[in-house]
Amino acid sequence: MSTTDGVVWLLQVRNHTDIAAKIPLVTCDETSVQALAFSPDSSILAVGDGYGVIRLFATTRGKQIRELHEASWVLEVRFDDSNILFSNGNYGLSVWDIAQSKRIAVIQGGNCDGAGNCIAEIYDHYALSPDRSFVALAGTYISGIIVRDRTGRLTARIPALDESSSFTFRPKRPANLIVADGYGHISSWDAATGKLLRQLSASLHPYIWLAFIPGSDTNLLTFDAASARVWNVETGKALKGWTQDGDERFVSPDGEWITNARAGRIEVPHIPESHLLTEIQYRSYGQIGGH
Fold first, then answer.
1. Which of 100, 133, 161 is the last residue of a domain?
2. What gap in Å lies between CA 145 and CA 157, rounded to an integer?
3. Which pLDDT tens digits describe the chain residue by residue (291 residues)?
4. Does one domain contain both 4 and 83?
5. CB-side exposure of 290: number of CA atoms within 13 Å?
6. Range of the structural domain that residue 92 is part of
């Protein structure tokens, strides 16, 4: 991406120095471009602006394919998968099904009691349940983790460190929220009721990232810049672990599966689970050919 000359350009590059194409997408000023995000397969670019408009571009052609509308400034856009887009701004948090150009959930950016006293909530971290029924949220002015349904109704309050990023939903159990708490333990919660289901002793670092291994409903990866470990959430056993002091990434031997501690996610999650415990190891990011 480039924003020189008052235009957002999409640059198609073969390497760091060879630009294959330079496609103008949209003119920009101080309000017209506030947020950018690529879909996981890089086929779609979302551009949010200060007028509440989110434009979706097909990256191969540089053509706008859809347009979504929010009430005010779009401050952040983030893909949950290739078809689900989060939009965060002064209006709160929206979840969009971009194939249908339909908002499927909206969480207002505030919390009011019965007396009409309202407190702003800023959503720094959030996760959507696999069945799209619940959104777990944490951030500024939020104590621990809260869970809301698609209409914004509060369904659970989960004790955790303030502004915690340490939570994720189980892939095949949509109401099951997995949390790393302030004591370093892994706990399992019912997102619909806030009931504690199980707690596993883990001694994790605060604010560690959580993600399930692609294709698995039991193998949970906990990772930060210096370490990564796989846990079985059914048995509570640690299955495999690695440490390093390099560039904050752990990759599979073929370079197709990477943890990104800075972004808090697994990138290019295509390694089969059967290969994980026997083959995954740490290598320097420079050794995987620019993956």
1. 100
2. 6
3. 445 556 677 766 655 555 556 777 777 665 678 899 988 888 899 999 989 999 999 988 888 999 999 999 999 999 988 899 999 998 899 999 999 999 999 998 766 666 666 677 889 999 999 999 999 999 988 989 999 999 999 999 999 999 999 999 999 998 999 999 888 899 999 999 999 999 999 888 888 889 888 788 999 988 877 778 889 999 989 887 766 645 566 664 445 556 666 655 655 443 344 444 333 333 322 222 222
4. yes
5. 4
6. 1-100
Among 86, 107, 88, which residue's Cα sits nearest to residue 98? 86
Say whether both 94 and 47 belong to one domain.
Answer: yes
Residues 6+ apart with CB under 8 A from 113: none
SS3 274: helix
DSSP letter (8 states) at residue 277: H
Residues 58/63/66/68 CA torsion (nearest 10 deg): 100
CA distance 107 to 118: 14
Q: How many domains does the chain have?
A: 3
Do 215 and 266 share a domain, yes or no? yes
Residue labelled with tokens 């990434």: 249
3-state secondary structure of 275: helix
Which among 207, 237, 270 is the end of a domain? 207
Cross-strand bridge partners of residue 63 = 58
